[in-house]
Amino acid sequence: QVQLVQSGAEVKKPGASVKISCKTSGYIFTTYILHWVRQAPGQRLEWMGWMNGVTGGITYSQKFQGRVTLTRDTSASTAYMELNSLRSEDTAVYFCTRTGEFGDYYFAFWGQGTLVTVSS
Amino acid sequence: EILLTQSPATLSLSPGERATLSCRVSQSVGRFLAWYQQKPGQAPRLLIYDTFYRATDIPARFSGSVSGTVFTLSISSVEPEDCAIYYCQQRKDWPLTFGRGTRLEIK
User: Fold this and answer.
1) Interchain CB contact of B96 with A (< 8 Å)
2) Which of A47, A108, A112 lies closest to B96 in CB terms?
3) Residue B33: its pLDDT value, please?
4) Which one, A69, A106, A119, B72, has least CB within 10 Å?
5) Residues 6+ apart with CB under 8 A from A7
């Protein structure tokens, strides 16, 4: 079955960077789009960007453009999201999520989430 | 960006009652709207996509509809396990956006 397993919780200081991994299994890694979505405490879900599984092409939300980098290791079926210049408002649970047969921009499968806490 | 406004913020119902959750969009999204269910400590779960269609293994008591710019998620007869927060999401335009959610409480 499809599984997305994310790396563990992180605590970072303001100005630092964080890199989260999303190891996938149960499907061919390069055939589906992977998105990243975050959820700050008490806030709505927020879409950050996506990577095309076939081409490796990337689209970032304008809000995060310049601060976020999506990469992947196809040999390890793993995707990565790095967020730089962290501030307290970046404290959130970060999810990787995969599309499915319902279209490229709905989120059918989710990782368990990675809590990132930004605190001095 | 397209703003999604959900109402009510909280809905409290007894088992067996009908739930009606609304999502108003700030501009047309066509039929490109989905609903998710999120329980505490879990990732969201896709319930409905393209306004009307149930995702895999979603019970038939969940249904979606639209009237103008207001999309509706209905649960015909709520069960205790439906206690969760429900979010709508549009895929018509970038950035993809979500509503703030409706919390469904079961008495």
Assistant:
1) yes
2) A47
3) 97
4) A119
5) A20, A21, A22, A114
